[in-house]
UniProtKB/TrEMBL annotation:
This is MFS transporter. Residues 19-41 have a biased composition (Low complexity). Pfam families: MFS_1 (PF07690). The keyword Cell wall biogenesis/degradation does not apply. It is a multi-pass membrane protein. Keywords: Cell membrane, Membrane, Transmembrane, Transmembrane helix.
Amino acid sequence: MPSDTTSPAGTPREEPAAEELSPALPPERASSSGPGAAPGADPGGGGYRAVFAVREFRPVFAAHLLSLLGVVVSELALTVLVYDLTGSPLLSALTLALGFLPYAVGGTLFAGVADRYPARRVLVTCDLICAGCVALMVLPGTPVAGLLALRCLVAAVAPVFTGTRTAALTDILGEGELYVLGRSLLRLVSQSALFAGFGAGGLLLTAMSPRGAITVTVATFLGSAAILRLGTRDRPARAGGGGGGALLAESLAGARAVLGDRRIGGLLLLFWVPAFFVVVPEALAAPYVDAIGAGPAALGVLMCSTAAGHIGAELYVGTVLGPRARSRIVLPAAALGLLPLVLYAFRPGMVLAVTALVFAGAGAAYVIGLDQWFVQAVPEHLRGRAMTVLTAGLMTVQGLGMALAGVAAEFFPVHQVVAYSGVAGTACTLLVVAEVRRTRVRYRSARRG
């Protein structure tokens, strides 16, 4: 299934004390273990190894890795298939865009599923639906319109799956240190899949037809479903089961409750706003390489640079820094993360452009601490819907960012579009940081009351 993706960002120089930034919680909520943590796991040490020591996390991780590689391979193969059938670059590009845009629909209309039904049932059902959709894509008689419609359906199911899984991690790992590192591991796999998945997809397409490569994804979805069904516990629904009431109304009500809370809304924006701007250089990598006269290999390097910076920063923060230090860097790292893109104003060559993108990717260091703030701010009964809204919004803003970057590049030089995205993104992120600071005081007072 789709991934936990997050992107870098930018925030103010002033750095408050860690205890001021961390939401005030009762001692039992602030602990690293929490109700779902595995007995015997040491949340106070061991880093990522402590997460893998939790037996139930291992199948979740394996299912994520398996299905994510399949998704990346199928996206590449489907793009090639649509182009082979139509000869249209527009429809080929639209195939990729459809991986982003339906997230908003699925995350809004179906968010209630994440809390209304048991998590394991939701996850397995989502995998089976996606396996069925991909199986229909493989059929020779499926028209291009059908391929695109099936692509939309898979993308609409994705935020429900990801939101449900993210909420279920609090049952498996607790709400503290293990949860934060577990989320980080899934994000690292998602970023790494860009390298492994596209490489594997390219190799598969040299050995078989696009439809044959897509067939591989059917097996990955079925494998993920089997692993989750056999390797995770069957827990009751968060909202009391699939009782009465319209699912659509319940989903919309949950989204309103999440977005209507100023504290949660501010944290959501801190995830979304930097992600909207950081995808601009990726979206414009091909025209920029052409503009500076670099070779085809340069395109692949630019496309991977942000992900490389993200992976390196997140590994460092998750391995070296403790919870208090991660909390301290959230706002400063978010504020500064997009500033490296301003280097594009000088129309840099490959070395400086790659450097700027790696540092922009490293801005993602703030996300681990932000994960902790978010899970602490969301009430338990809304957690599935909140995680679904978070995922849907994140993917949607990245798709919009790519689309608007393309529009802007029709009227302005590519290097200017990227540089201005760094400036505008930093300014917008600073406004979000100010809101997060304001809501922090009210949140702490409410928790104490």
